[in-house]
Amino acid sequence: MLAKHRLPLTNEKPWQGSGLGYRPPLSRALLQHLPSEIDFLELAPENWIHVGGRRAKDLQILAEHYPIICHGLSLSIGGPAPLDQKLLKQIKEFLRQFNVPCYSEHLSYSNDGHQLYDLLPIPFTEEAVFYVVDRIKQTQDFLERNIALENVSYYCAPSNELTELEFITAVLAESQCELLLDVNNIYVNSINHGYDPTIFLEKLQGSNVAYIHIAGHEKIKYNLAIDTHGARIIDPVWVLLKQAYLQFGPLPTLLERDSDIPPLENLLEEIAQVKALQDSQRAITHA
Fold first, then answer.
1. Contact residues for 58 (Cβ-Cβ < 8 A; gap 6+)
2. Distance between CA 157 and CA 251 in Å, rounded?
3. Please, what are the domains in the chain?
4. Residue 36 CB: number of other CB atoms within 10 A?
């Protein structure tokens, strides 16, 4: 049962529009220009907990200009090791300190007592659904808020008792958490596992989506793509984003770029494309 005091994620978002993943190489440009094209920033709290000096001051300045949301890397919601209570306490304090309206994680696991420095797939089994749901509920109760979980890219399926879609749907329904919808991950997985990304997205209709991620990837060969977050977004992913807006409305959307980070103005061009699609959907909705 959901705790009565838990902060829900609702359709009335305290952050809106188009956001950017905050990475240290972007700090100088962001602080110099504080571009109005950016509506919110997202960061991994693990990378900023207990950070001091210049970096902490930079973050504080940015937090005064932009809403900050958090996307975790290390909770390992599907991992075999017990949930890291020390990390949860640190995250809870960080969310309070920066008045963070949304905390998300990955529907995967990333450690077994020690960090594995990768996001590994959870077996798509009924047993895994109940295991993960219990850990989500523990996390939500401790943080006193609902969380969102991201559909992840994966490169092998440790079990096919359930499909990826059935697994995600069951976890969302049983845990009452929300979905961080990564449209690039849907596209990458569709290449690697041979399904139609538009049908996959269509069947997520009815899911409670907190916000959306969009990013670039690397195509290795016709049946292998790697979710690098290191390239411009390609046309098929933009098409999926447009479909997501048709299904769920122009939800807050976050541009991720983690490698080969270009000048800020290049990222602002992609953010402008996000905004154009959001505006187009709003016009359709209000027509």
1. 27, 31
2. 30
3. 18-286 (3.20.20.150)
4. 8
Residue 111 confidence (pLDDT): 67
3 confidence band (pLDDT: 50, 70, 90): very low
Has this prediction a pTM greater than 0.85?
Answer: yes
Q: Euclidean distance between the first and final Cα of the chain, in Å? A: 40
Mean pLDDT estimate for the chain: 92
Flag the least confident range among 11-15, 133-137, 200-204.
11-15
Return d(Cα 139, Cα 287) in angstroms, integer.
Answer: 41
Structure tokens at 265: 């103005």
**What is the DSSP track for the chain?**
---TTPBPP-SS-SS-SEEEE--GGGHHHHHHH--TT--EEEE-GGGTTT--HHHHHHHHHHHHHS-EEEE-SS--TT-SSPP-HHHHHHHHHHHHHTT-S-EEEESSEEESSSEEEEEEPPP-SHHHHHHHHHHHHHHHHHHTB--EEEPPP-S--S--SS-HHHHHHHHHHHH--EEEEEHHHHHHHHHHHT--HHHHHHTTTT--EEEEEE---EEEETTEEE--S-SPPPHHHHHHHHHHHHHH-S--EEE---SS---HHHHHHHHHHHHHHHHHHHHHHH-
